[in-house]
Amino acid sequence: MLGLGVGIELGSSMWMVLLCSVCALVALKWLLQNANSWLYETPLGEKQYSLPPGDLGWPFIGNMWSFLKAFKSSNPETFVNSLVSRFGRTGIYKAFMFGSPSVIVTTPEASKRVLTDDDAFKPGWPLSTLELIGKNSFIGISYEEHKRLRRLTAAPVNGNEALSMYMKYIEDIVVTSLEKWSKMGEIEFLTQLRKLTFRIIMYIFLSSESEPVMDALEREYTILNYGVRAMAINLPGFAYHKALKARKNLVSTFQSIVDERRAQRKSRNYMPKKKDMMDALLDVVDDDGRKLTDSEIIDVLLMYLNAGHESSGHIMMWATIFLHKHPEYFQKAKAEQEEIVKRRPPTQKGMTLKEYREMEYLSQVIDETLRVVTFSLTVFREAKKDVNINGYSVPKGWKVLVWFRSIHYDSEIYPNPMEFNPFRWDNYTPKPLTFLPFGAGSRLCPGNDLAKLEIAIFLHYFLLNYKMERSNPDCPLMYLPHTRPKDNCLAIIKKTGSA
């Protein structure tokens, strides 16, 4: 009997210990789930009750685990879809993203306020992104400084005069590259396209055509971009740690380029073929007569060279993939280019800006590719003061993420949004803030005209004379840092015409 009593007592004790452990775990989970709320919402007082619906997730991690899980799956839309299913279709949600309490906006109406009201919002990129791209780049400087530098740096890449100046150079590189690729057998199509667009931007900004320098820089940019959308873990083996090393190497290379250009300009026999972006940045002075420092010049160049080749290369690849998946679209686009060539006078060599403006269907193909791919999934702003959007409070200092993907995939704006359909653009002018491949407002991407011209020139020559045979047409996709096939689109480029 004594043994039985002891056994019952021990059993009861074990159950009590187990019960207490379960209760402790439940309590710990509850504490962790509410820690961010206590830390960031409670100090807001009454304003916390007018915050958008949502949650701030776990301490430190916030909602990043859900974000990364979605974007490393085959369906990245599950991230925002989960917010909609849990909190309703409000178009605005609170979250904890990239180390900060944030508000995610997913509708054109809310996006318009955030992207166009410079009195209420400023750039709000995560500190980790600023460390990689540069605190003196466009994403880190004040509105006034941005406006001044943008006016200076946009001139070489925008407008008819600038585009006409570079057309011949872009054409020559495209024709040469396609010919070269057709003789190489299997290639990583995306990798080759990124090299192509990087070569163009290097020529425009630095007048450089050194292939070893370009290849080295492009490799470092690849590593850098993997760190931009990663969690900021600065430990060996993590993407962010590798990206910081890549930035250091890029800065070192650009510093040597700046030093060399300064030395050239001091010599009396310096006769540049053209004034490039480097010259413009070295010459600029502010109202007080101050010139840019080397670090300011390097950050602006680093940002421009990155933005100026990544998006163009990816969109060229995706437009080519989509056209091959839809032979009827391919044939229509090809016929348009053939008709343009037929109308040329015998003495004309190459494309003209007038012909580019006449490529109506190809422009639709490019716009539809930009929409479907949505190269930049979001943009970051920060509230400069307490702001009310659609009846919800956005506290001063909170980040605001304009979620471009949700707008481009809204079935009420674009029926069957996941379908690639250039014909949806027939006689269609998108309403304000429903088409955002280059952002909007005062910080609209300054190189958008150049990017679309590059893509059009490439597709013009590809459609006329080449086709692509992918090695792995069903290759799975990666969505970070940008949407691409995991094999970088392994393919063979073949001649079909009189290239």
UniProtKB/TrEMBL annotation:
Q: Which Gene3D superfamilies match?
A: Cytochrome P450 (1.10.630.10)
Q: Which InterPro entries match?
A: Cyt_P450, Cyt_P450_CS, Cyt_P450_E_grp-I, Cyt_P450_sf
Q: Which UniProt keywords apply?
A: Heme, Iron, Membrane, Metal-binding, Monooxygenase, Oxidoreductase, Transmembrane, Transmembrane helix
Keyword Cytoplasm present in the record's keywords: the answer is: no
Write down the required cofactor(s).
Answer: heme
Topological type in the membrane: Single-pass membrane protein
Q: Where in the cell is it found?
A: Membrane
State where it is primarily located: membrane
The family database entries (Pfam families) matched by this protein are listed as: p450 (PF00067)
Which one GO biological process term can you cite for this protein?
brassinosteroid homeostasis
Pathway the protein takes part in: Plant hormone biosynthesis; gibberellin biosynthesis; Hormone biosynthesis
Q: Name one GO cellular component term.
A: endoplasmic reticulum
Q: Where does heme bind?
A: 445
Q: Name one GO molecular function term.
A: ent-kaurenoic acid monooxygenase activity
Query: Per the similarity annotation, which family is this?
Result: Belongs to the cytochrome P450 family.
The job of this chain, per UniProt, is described as: Catalyzes three successive oxidations of ent-kaurenoic acid giving gibberellin 12 (GA12), a key step in gibberellins (GAs) biosynthesis. GAs, which are involved many processes, including stem elongation, play a central role in plant development.
What name does UniProt use for this protein? Ent-kaurenoic acid oxidase 1-like
* Lineage of the species this protein comes from: Eukaryota, Viridiplantae, Streptophyta, Embryophyta, Tracheophyta
